[in-house]
Amino acid sequence: DDPEARARFLTIMSSQATRMTRLIDDLLSLSRVEMRVHLPPRGMLDLNEVASYVAQALDPLAAGNKMKIVVTKSDTPLRIRGDRDEIVQVIQNLVHNAIKYGREGGRVEIAISRVMDGSPPQPRALVAVADDGPGIAPEHIPRLTERFYRANAAASREKGGTGLGLAIAKHIVIRHRGELRISSAVGKGSTFSIL
What we know:
By secondary structure, the protein is an alpha+beta fold. It contains five helices and seven strands; from the N terminus they run αβαββαββααββ.
């Protein structure tokens, strides 16, 4: 019958239930992606349109962190074969991470372009999501796409991370016959690129 204790415990239960819901949603999403990893996507999408859509959807979150999302589009439509919902999920995840772990008052850039890549060089579509946040220490970069791995576990938990977002992104990119690259410099920000 202690209203103060009751309020405190209900707040804790609510926050833990929300965390568990996020975790279950991410596990289900990862499971769905893994089941379909060998099925090539059939749809077509324009990466310029998807980048604009993601920026518009996450603009309120960015504004809440006093951040700005800037989209630099390819000069012409950049159409790829892919599952639009999954590509939206990947880019949304990368932009959400950039907002979550970037610098308050900073900027997140989504850049869409055509590049020559590989050996021998071939034309590929590139989506790069860059932030001007604190960056990631080099020893963490190779493990960032592992399930439940967090470069800074306390900060990730505090900001609502499950440690599955980049694992989901990697599997979606693999399904689309692509590659996820991560580059970062401590104190200068990070860039997550999808080819």
